[in-house]
Amino acid sequence: MTIDTMSTNSSTVKRGVARWFIREIVGTVMAGVILFWGAGNWNWVWGWATVVTIAYYVFGTAFVLLPKNPALLAERTGPKHGAKKWDTLIMIAVGTIILIIYIVGGLDARNGWTSDFPAWAQIIGVALTLLGYTLALWAIAANAFFSLIVRIQKERGHTVATGGPYQFVRHPGYVGTILAYIGTPMMLGSNWAILLGVITAILIIVRTALEDKTLLAELDGYKEYAARVRYRLLSGVW
Fold first, then answer.
1. pLDDT digits (tens, 9 = 90+) for 59-111
2. Count of CB atoms situated within 10 Å of the CB of 51
3. For the segment 203-212, what is each residue's pLDDT rounded down to a tens digit?
4. Domain boundaries, the chain
5. How far is it, in rounded angstroms, from Cα 153 to Cα 10?
6. pTM for this prediction
7. Helix or strand run (H / E) with residue 75
8. Nearest CA to 78 among 175, 133, 151, 135?
9. What is each CA distance from 141 to 69, 73, 103, in whole angstroms?
10. Which CATH fold would you assign to the domain 11-228?
């Protein structure tokens, strides 16, 4: 089976990887700027904790993909051919809400909209975020077709991922994403940001349902896999 039609040493892949690194580094820096601008304080510990968790996921993704599948990393900066309209709309909404979470979290820290948010809950938020990102990285490592958009990658000989966390639930990457999207606003100590995080988690659950329906209809072998691994996100529940 051929994973990618491009050579992993091609200039196209190298340029794509370079663009990805630039985009992610700029994005991480901008997240920090937004957080600290809102807080009005560069010494805000929880703002720095948030930036560190973002950087952990960025460099973790590079660590997982660069050695064995750099083309998949490069694809993340290319045109989104074959993306479903509903997928595009959901991810635009998710990206917008995440940006608002950073703004609200910073402003809440400055203005005290959430009073007496316990430090232990913020520490739990850090743990949830790191756990979520780690689970997502495990899913990326176990799935050679882990794309940012929902599509069947016929040009790569798309097959069903069954190893790693995919032994337990069908969409472990989304489990990790949901944990991180709840954990991050907890880390920021903002009830308003937590509410936005819950909305984001609901959107990811909707995306999970729609993606699962797509895979059942379009990906060879997925029905058999779904019969073996019954649950999408949480064993025994759904």
1. 999 999 888 888 888 777 766 666 788 988 999 999 999 999 999 999 999 99
2. 17
3. 999 999 999 9
4. 11-228
5. 20
6. 0.89
7. helix 70-75
8. 151
9. 9, 12, 32
10. Four Helix Bundle (Hemerythrin (Met), subunit A) (1.20.120)
